[in-house]
Amino acid sequence: MRSLGMAQTLLRPEQVDDLVAQYREGATLVELASRFGVNRRTVAMHLTRREVTIRRGRFDPSRIHEAADLYLNGLTLVEVGVKVGVGPQAVRQALASHGVVIRPGGRRGSRITAAAAVGG
User: What does pTM read for this prediction?
Assistant: First the structure.
């Protein structure tokens, strides 16, 4: 059963061909999900159906400072993952292992600063 409000994007066979080709050329699940407007699990499902071995996402250690800056400036784990090309769990693990405190899950609060909220 699908959740209400979830739009389903169906890919045509030629789109799946393109998705598979791009993955084989090095694109990540997250990148392909963004390009094709689908969930990364949908990308993985298409690859699996085509008998393509899924690579285990590895966080590029040279991007930890970029990821930390993005996260500390208010982006979510998912948003940071899209920018650095890995899934949100890989971002969470990399940030936490470098001492970044992970915010509680759930909806993100307003980005209005406390000073702006009190009229400062």
Answer: 0.50
